[in-house]
Amino acid sequence: MEIMRIVVTGPVGAGKSSFIRTISEIDVVDTDRKATDETAAWKTKTTVAMDFGRLHFGKDVALHLYGTPGQERFDFMWDMLIRKAHAFILLVSSHRPQDFRAARRILAFMRHRASIPMLIGLSHADNPAAWPMDAILLALGYPSSHHRPPAVSVNALEPASVVNALAALIEAYARDKWQNSTDSIKMHSFSGVM
Amino acid sequence: MAIDVTKLEVLLQQFVANVSHVQGAAVVSPDGLALASSLPSGMDEERVAAMSAAMLSLGERIGRELKRGEIARVLVEGEQGYGILTSCTEEAVFLILADHDAKLGIINLEIKNVVGEIRKQLLGLAQPVGL
Questions:
Q1: Does A33 contact B47 at a Cβ distance shorter than 8 Å?
Q2: I need a labelling partner for A143 at 20 to 30 A (CA). Which of A126, B23, B66, B115 fits?
Q3: Out of B51, B58, B65, whose CB is closest to A76?
Q4: Inter-chain residue contact B32 with A48, CB threshold 8 Å
Q5: For A40-60, what is each residue's pLDDT tens digit?
Q6: Is the pLDDT of residue A193 over 50?
Q7: What value of ipTM does the predicted structure carry?
Q8: CA B54 to CA A31: how far, in whole Å?
Q9: Chain A partners of B58 at a C-beta cutoff of 8 Å?
Q10: Which of A27, A30, A31 should we substitute to test contact with B (largest number of B Cβ atoms within 10 Å)?
Q11: For residue A31, which residues of chain B lie inside 8 Å, CB to CB?
């Protein structure tokens, strides 16, 4: 059984904890606490350390999902979690443009520490106030449709949608691995990375 | 009665000044915001608060998962000393930093006493602190 560690990150309220709770096969290890900061106005609980969930993907891959806190004051958790990750998902609420800057900061933080495959998951895409995908990617710093990470819209409460996002991420991961192994003699086997 | 942050700060300063080997103390909300602190210089209150909340919540979660019951405190022991986290009220977590010569028994008693005082302050039950 090979283990693939996936970090689920993004600004407060993007749906990171829901994403993991929706798909985990075990009881999610969460660290929710009552929110008392500015997020308390629109959600009651917030993650202060991490969420952990697990599921099997195919016959011999176990996905370990780690959810980060959203607030920047917990960036030491971002750092701890991303360093051991094989890939990560940046979740962004499509209807909260005020969060795009925070999302971009998280993205820069993660990119700086790990060059691993990633996926942008756009939540709340069905909200009437949602921005179109291209506009959000632009706001996140990807002006051209080339050289941009894969992006999908995702409903964090819908198992099929979460699976779809994970599949897209794993595909990106496999592509990256294949490229690395053909680009150089250095082989990046799945187990070699761990 | 409103929480008197100044009195809370004074309480922490007195605790740090009077209890030997204690180097710093902070009261933070369970979601990682500082309520009051008296920390060694160079230590960022905001970071300390977030770390305290993360550590206590993970500690409590480990306690639950590994059937250790209610968690009384989380203790980190390093070469340079101790960091001890205690749940204070539903709304507050108490952190102290002590150097390595601290006697844990004494420190634990002192924490118990001061947590009682902090609780009174936070719940607005306190008499004015005699200065």
A1: no
A2: A126
A3: B51
A4: yes
A5: 888 899 999 999 999 998 888
A6: no
A7: 0.81
A8: 8
A9: 31, 49-50
A10: A31
A11: 54, 57-58, 61
CB-based contact A73 B49, cutoff 8 Å: yes
Beta-strand relationship, A118-123 and A61-67: unpaired
B31–A48: do the CB atoms touch at under 8 Å? yes
Q: Tens digits of per-residue pLDDT, A14-43?
A: 999 999 999 999 999 999 999 988 888 888
Residues A103, A72 contacting (CB under 8 angstroms): no
* Tens of pLDDT, residues A153-170: 999 999 999 999 999 999
Q: Is B71 on the interface with A (CB under 8 A)?
A: no
Which positions in chain A touch B46 (Cβ < 8 Å)?
Answer: 73
The dihedral over CA atoms of A113, A118, A123, A129, expressed in degrees to the nearest 10, equals: 80
Nearest by Cα to A7 from A114, A108, A94, A104: A114
Phi and psi, residue A32, nearest 5°:
-75, 140
Whether A81 and A69 have beta carbons less than 8 Å apart is answered as: no
Structure tokens at B15: 């605790």
DSSP A72: G
Which residues, at least 6 apart from B98, have a Cβ–Cβ distance to it below 8 Å? B21, B22, B23, B81, B82, B84, B107
pLDDT per residue as tens, chain B (131 positions):
677 889 999 999 999 999 999 999 999 999 999 999 999 999 999 999 999 999 999 999 999 989 998 888 999 999 999 999 999 988 899 999 999 999 999 999 999 999 999 999 888 765 554 44
Q: Given the structure tokens 């101790």, which residue do they identify? A: B82
Please give the model's pTM, rounded to 2 decimal places: 0.87
